[in-house]
Every structure is written in C-alpha cells, then in structure tokens.
C-alpha cells in the first residue's frame, strides 16, 4: 500500500523501511493508466449502469456494479471519528486547529483513517475545512478556525494521514457553509478575488497539497446558485483553475435541481433520490447530454481506481485497528496539545499536587464528556473522560469536591449555595463551563446555531464564577465549546482561564494534566475571542463587507478583542530575537527566507508556536493589515535557543487579478512580522519585491500507485501530483518525471508535455518502468519532476516528494 501502517506512539513517528526486490534493466509492461481503465469501463456500461454510479442506494452507500466488478462507495461521517460505531472520538477540527501542529494533524488523520478502514468504510466524510465566519455558527466545532492559511496547512496533513490508509478523505464543505439556520437558502455574496485568495485557499491546499480524493459541495448558495449547482465553483474554480482530478459528492440532500447540479459538476448526489428519479428522464429528453453523464462517471471511476477499490483491497477489523492503545495515545496527545492557557494571574497554575488538599470542581461541564456539537459529527467512543473523572484519578476522589452549581443555560440559581460552600472549603476552585451539544450544532437541533444567539457565556455561568471568587480567590475557569464564548464580565474574577475546544474522549485527562503541570500547555487560539457581540461584524450573507472576518476585521476596525487570534500562554516564557531575511530586495516571485531565533527563557521545558504574518503596502487593491503566512510549533528546553526558518514562496504573495483571471505577485514593499500571537508581533522586517521576469515553481506534493495496493508479481504504474506555486505558467514544456525505489530509478515519464498555470495542479503518470516482480515488503518511492533541471524555476529543492509503499 502507499503507506506503512504503524502503531501511533507518543514518541517520534518513524517509518520502518524494508527492502523490495527490483531490477533496473528492461522496460516492463505497465498496467493501463487510470483514464484508460475508465474509458474501457465506460464503453461497457449501459446508460442505466452509468447513472447508478451517481446516486446513493442506501444510507451513505452507492450501488455496486456486479457485472463489471465496480464496487459502490461505503461512506460515513465524520470529521473526527467514525459515526454510528464504537470508535475513538478524536479532537474536533477546532481543537486540531488549536494545536498549530502539522505533524500531529497527520498522526490524527492516520489514526482516523485506520478506524474508518476497520469498520469497512471506503470514504471518510471529513475533514471539515469550514472557515469560522462568526462565533455563533452552530457547527464551528467541526471547522478549522478563522484563518484559511491555518486551516489549509493543517487539513492538508490530516488528509495525507487519512489517505495513508485504504480510506478516501473528503474535503468539506465547498464552500463556506457557516450559519446553520438558513444553510439551504443562504445566498452568500463573494467576489472572484475573495474566493481565489482567501475563502478558497483552504480547499486549494486540501486538493493540491493533501491530494484529497473527494470534495463535498455545501448547502448554501453562492452568488445566487446553490454550491452543488454552481459551475463556477465545481468546474471553473475546482477543476479548471486548481486542477482537481477526482470526484465531488453533495452534502446530504444538498441537490435542489438535478439538471443544474450534474451539469455544474456535482458528480454524486447523496442524501436524496433526486438523481435516481430525475436523471433517466433528463438524459432521455436530451436536457442532460450523455457527455455530461460520462464526465461525471469518469470522475467517479477515476477516484475508485486511484483509491484501490477496483483491485486488491486490504481489509481490517475493529479488533485490529479501532480503539487501539495507540489511537488512545494519539487522541490524548491531540487533546493535550489543543489546550489553550489564556490567563494565569499570580501564576495560580499549575496547581501543586502535593500541597492541594482539596479542589472544588464546580460547573455544568465538570462531569460531562462533551465530545461534539449536535449533529452529524457525533461519536460514540468506548469511553470518554470528564474533567472530574480525571481529577479523581489524579488526586483521589476524597480530595475532589464536586457540585454542578448551575445549568449550561438557564436562570436557575438554586445550586449556588452548595457550590459556594464547597468552594469556601477548598484550596482552589475550578469552574468548568462553556457549551455543549444542547447549545450549538446543526440546524435540525430544534433550535439552530447557538441557542442564546450570542458569544456571551450563557445562563448563570458568569454570575456563578463571580460568586465563587467572592468566597475563594483562587478560581480557575475551564471552558469547553465548539465556537468560542466570551466572558468579559466575569474574567476579572478568575485568576486563570483555560480553553478547550471539544477535544474528544481524552479531553478530561488533558485538562487535568494541564491544571497540575503534568503537561505544559501550548495551544493557541484558532479564533478571536470578542469582548462582546458588539465587536462582531453584522452576521449577514455579504462577504464583501467584513474585510475577511476574524482578526482581519478587528485590525481594520482597530478593535481590541478579549484574546487575539494565535494567543496562548505557557508555564515558561519565550523570547524572540535576531529576525533576518535572505535579502531585503528581491524580484517579485523569488523565495524569501525568513529566520528568527526563539529562546526558552524560563525554568520549564515547553512548546512555543512561532507565527509569521505579512503586511502588504501600496497595493492597488484593498489588503488586510496583516495575514498569517507561516507558523511552526517547536519544543525548547529551559535556556535552549533554536532558529526557526520560514520560506515564503511566490504563492504566499499571490493576488488574484480578476481581469486577467490569474494569480500574480505584485511588486512593492512588504513587512514580515513575527511573534507568539497576532497581537504580539515584536519583530518586523521590510522586504521589497521588484518588477522582473516571472518564473514557475514546480512542486511534487503526492505520489500514487496503480494498483494502489500492489501484490507481489504485479506491475505498478506510478503517478505524481504536481503543482505550480510560481508566478509564471509552464506552457507545454517537455519535462522529465522520474520515480525511484530505494534511490534507484524504476519508472519515468520522459519528455512529458506539461502546462500549468500559477496555482494549478495536475496528475502525471509514469509512461515507462523497469521495476520487475517486486517481492512483498515495504520501501519508499520518490517522484521527481524536472530531474535534469531544464526548467528555470524559483526553487529546485521542492521538485521531489517521497512516501512509503507496501507490496502485499
């Protein structure tokens, strides 16, 4: 298979490489290309058989063609664990975003893929790449924060992790669903530039860097057309401009007009019988040409072939690959790394285990697991640890006083007396509140979005926090939610504030570890916390009037939030120094290397998240005051100093020219800003980009094999996913593509004619092979484009990509 499936461990993730026999002599007979196999199947299919590839015939399944041995899809929610099964509950999308850790995102993706595979699923309906438009949106727990760069970077690694297993990832919801109460009718207004630069960046990374084998269209309308029926989204943007080669599936019952949807490029209709009942008549009448049906079926078959579904397909079982100790470990590590420390007055945290005689744990979330918001992301793990359970385990139940105190959202204060009495007797108090699945979720939850329609912590929670502080000054608030809650009125009463976006089955353990210093927190806010609702832009459907939402809005309006995007504290301290760039003046498009020293100036080992933002000056169009363009999470021992290196490529400076319909890099002055949060960017350095000759920059981002899971004795054809992240096109140049196994070239595509616009990707097959009769085992395959460096590029060190391969 394309990846080695190893148990996940809390230590470094290492591939165990074996040897694979090969000879580099005569050319071998390659298997047919995926497209040739697709055409062969297509020619054998009747109209009825073709249409059967495009609709669901059961709950999250599509029909199997027994005659031609083409299996149907078996799909399942959701974005952070297998729905409807006794499977692990991993951290939600917002929690993963809080880790700011690409490597961890990969490990979480791989663990999820193994569990979907164990339960017989071909396709995971996740990850969710939604951008948080407003904290009150009900499905924010599934989203990846407010910044498309953060989401795009992390989701690419989640997708790669999922697809190391025999499971397809599905990037959803394309694009930007947001408000749940009106999700089927909400007409969102976007500019072409807004889609190409900001609101679609996360999806471009998912398909071009992550190599996602499927994309899900969203419910909402965009510029007057439902997303599933938008040729602009499905065809112009996704397929033509970005080069997505695989298939699109609709969200559940998201198709409203079958003719519009299939013509637009929504290949499979899920959650309704619209295609099944409408397409036969539409085809028979000529309203939908057979060429449209063939195009959709090609996308579906290509995806199935590249996913390995039509060839040998390895199987697993829940006993082997679900709820494993290794998965519990990565779930715990994910939860730990997601915890955000926001306030620590007087170093109230961490609590001292040996001197804490009694701890009062008060609040509606103290004894709850809080796995998800309400809806299709639900998980049912074998166990889930609440904060109270974890503290009982860590300290002993006799040291833990517990009272609920108040509800999540009611006016009942009858529990205050018991809660304050326990607080009075305790050394320290932890108030555990926030939201739960009764307060936020998908639109069919009796209510919709957030029940109180406010960012403010609901019910009597803030009142109880103040009451607890009056009898015991050592109050630490722990909030759990999907969308962020504000607590401006009660924040002064709390010495500490710890935030946890629903972090899965090990959330309680992770929180207890942070509270008592067994884990030094380093999560960072993936969203901005407002002081009040009045700081938010109007929650409307016009995306041209809010400056890109999130910290961009706060910057534009000169607003000071409660806690900024990227904020988070540690039990140690860090210092930034010696910011420098590879040059102060370069040709527009040339790579800019940025280096900064980060030192742990405290007494404890800890993680810091170095963040790089870019400010554009003198732009011919409006630009945000700053944009996230780089981040690295690094671990530092006390006193240790490391140099963090960022490399800004042409892509990081892309601006979409709406007249020329192309990505460009504008000359002018830019400022690089680096620090530990979006409002703590202590170091700055100007860089000037000069007009000059543009260049392409090819990058290999993924390697596929056909068959995906080869068996000993089978011939294998390799594919490379190649993208252009430069600022000039590649126009039909004949370039060499090579593939090596254990550093020996085994396959190639010499003289491949390549045409790629900036920001576009394509899937390139090998045309020759000398790889003979491999034996079963594991090794590494590497793809290299332009290996003889004929093309003049900005960078030459990103032309190769390697991944593991297993022959069964």
Automatic annotation (TrEMBL):
Q: Name one Pfam family in it.
A: CARDB
- Asked if the record carries the keyword Ribosomal protein, the reply is yes
Keyword terms, alphabetized: Hydrolase, Ribonucleoprotein, Ribosomal protein
Cross-referenced InterPro entries: CARDB (IPR011635), Cellulose_deg_GH3 (IPR050288), Fn3-like (IPR026891), GH (IPR017853), Glyco_hydro_3_C (IPR002772), Glyco_hydro_3_C_sf (IPR036881), Glyco_hydro_3_N (IPR001764), Glyco_hydro_3_N_sf (IPR036962)
Listed GO molecular functions? Answer: hydrolase activity
Residues covered by the Fibronectin type III-like domain: 608-678
Q: List the top taxonomic levels of the source.
A: Bacteria, Pseudomonadati, Bacteroidota, Cytophagia, Cytophagales
Which family would the database say this protein is a member of? Answer: Belongs to the glycosyl hydrolase 3 family.
Tell me a GO cellular component.
ribosome
Query: Which organism does this sequence originate in?
Result: Hymenobacter guriensis
The name on file for this protein is Glycoside hydrolase family 3 C-terminal domain-containing protein
Key word Ribosomal protein present in the record?
Answer: yes
